[in-house]
Amino acid sequence: ATLRDQMTFSRIMQSVGLAIANNDRLAQCDPQSIYLSVLHIVSLGLDPSGMTQQAYLVPFKGQCTPMVGYQGKIELAYRSGKIAKINTQLIYENDPVTIDLAQGTVTHGVDLSKPRGKMLAAYALIWLKGQESPLMEVMTSEDFEQIKADASRRSGGRMSPAYKNWPGEMWRRSVLNRALKRAPKSRDLIENL
């Protein structure tokens, strides 16, 4: 099941207009690359505006690139019909946390009486329907630094502003991507991992 049939032309136009209004560099991109990016995102039944965090139109070197966001990955994962629940969290240095990798359990709290400190890690838990124990993925700051270095190398040293402006969301997206590789997939998700 997908939401493809619910994407009306006027809704698509509004979403593209919002994306361009929020990033003036998109207006400078090759129109065909914008069209193809929108076509890809809409074919998945996702919102390309970036406002819902489902998908983004990303300008890079005069071309527009489609990017499925964190919420889009979750939406596509649930479409498999086999996933009951997904949870991703960031772990900060002052968070009380216990992770049992063998059992796939996490006990994670937040002490609101003091600052949380710097981000240390992130984890994703994916519960499949009919199973008590979740699939678990844990990534450390070293893992994320490697992902960031790889992204920088692939883009010729230019980094997406998302790594600087929203590092926590990039960590969540990365750990979710890795966890979803072991989960049952919808056809749409298989195409976007």
Provide the descriptors you would attach to this structure in a database record.
single chain; 193 residues; alpha+beta; three-stranded antiparallel beta sheet; two-stranded antiparallel sheet; 38% helix; globular
What do you see in this structure?
- This protein is α+β, with helices and mostly antiparallel strands and about 190 residues long.
- The relative contact order is 0.14.
- About 40% of the residues lie in helices and about 25% in strands.
- The chain is built from seven helices and seven strands; from the N terminus they run H-H-E-E-H-E-E-E-E-E-H-H-H-H.
- It has a three-stranded antiparallel beta sheet with strand order 3-6-7. Strands 1-2 form a two-stranded antiparallel ribbon.
- It has helices at about 10-20, 30-45, 70-80, 140-155, 160-165, 165-180, 185-190; strands at about 55-60, 65-70, 85-90, 95-100, 105-110, 120-130, 135-140.
- The radius of gyration is 18 Å and the shape is globular.
Can I get a quick summary?
With 193 residues, the protein is α+β, with helices and mostly antiparallel strands. The protein is 38% helix and 24% strand.
Low-confidence stretches at least 5 residues in length (pLDDT < 50)?
none
Structural class: alpha+beta
- What string gives the helices and strands in order? HHEEHEEEEEHHHH
Give the strand order of the largest sheet, numbering strands 1, 2, ... along the chain: 3-6-7
Mean pLDDT equals: 86
Radius of gyration: 18 Å
Whole-Å distance between the termini? 19 Å
Query: What fraction, in percent, of the residue positions are helical?
Result: 25-40%
User: Overall 3D geometry?
Assistant: globular
The number of helical elements comes to 7
The proportion of residues in beta strands is 15-25%
The total strand number stands at 7
Report on the biggest sheet.
Answer: 3 strands, antiparallel
